[in-house]
Amino acid sequence: MVQLSLSSLKISHFRTHKLSVIEPTQEPIIIFGLNGAGKTNILEAISMFAPGQGFRRAKASDLSRRPDLLGWKLIGKFNILDQSCEIMVSWDEVLGRKIKIDGKLVTQSKLARLVRILWITPLMDRIWLNGSAERRRFLDRIVSNLVPDHTENSIKYYKALKQRNQLLKDNVSDSNWYDAVENQMALSAIEINKARSEVISSIMEMQKKSVSSFPVADLNLVGTQYFFEQDFQYALCARRKQDMHVGRTLIGPHLSDLGAIYSSKGIEAKNCSTGEQKALLISIIIATAKIQVEKFNVPPILLLDEVSAHLDIERRADLYDEICNLGLQVFLTGTDSTIFDGLKERGKYYEVVMNLGESKCMPIEDPLFKNV
User: How many angstroms separate the Cα of 36 from the Cα of each of 16, 30, 335?
Assistant: First the structure.
């Protein structure tokens, strides 16, 4: 049932890849190789087809292959439902970042409505231990996959927030300057909070239907006390002097947090073991993919960077079964190909090697090969 898939990927001067062309199939794509060979760079390239800065949140200029520094270009051919399109994401010092769909310039909001991508990376292993900003970004990535307008609402909110913060820093006291900005913040904030809350509820409901070994996460949105537009706008107005004192806005969805509890144990995620924290993360992502299948009949593309290494045998098998049963296109990386034995006859293998500072990606035709 793969109705969203990447059928061709051309990577040019991106990270360690001078020129790599990959033609993924609809079955799971396993990318293996030594540390530093350039495996994760392929997944990062795919993540650039989603709104934002990709899963490493790197500056566009830092993605250029060194020492060339010529800028970079990614061209992906996507099959979406019964149609196909070519998406190009590129950057150079003169033109900056550009997104084109079938040769026409588009915005990130347009991209968000077309391609939905979810990912898990090693950087997310500490998501329950790090600050709220990381969990908020994680939640918003999920929400954007399920609520098409969420990206646009977030862009509007953060633009208005930036304007309000500038007024506060400049000690502007004229209410006329604030009213329009705070009105836009209130309009967007209510939609953001509504979308986040609805998605969290949907994820918990979907998790409870699962029969796999992945745990249920009791999720909640922390720091959301305004449910009506006028309430939030009034609160912003009332706090102007306080906020002016610190030079920034101290209430709003930009400060919300995602709380999580390991349901069967009643333990907060931050106090769980490393394996349990990873299992909670995977459980949430799998539930999100299932919701998208039910809601849109189009599963997301899933990027799993080094995710299998931290799972026990049972959960690893459950993960492979889940992604195969969902019928979504998934890309997995690892240094040891044997860790993917559960997918050996169900996946397509690529080996990435480094030669003279340049990454090369080669398909492995025999799925029963022995790891060297």
Answer: 9, 16, 10
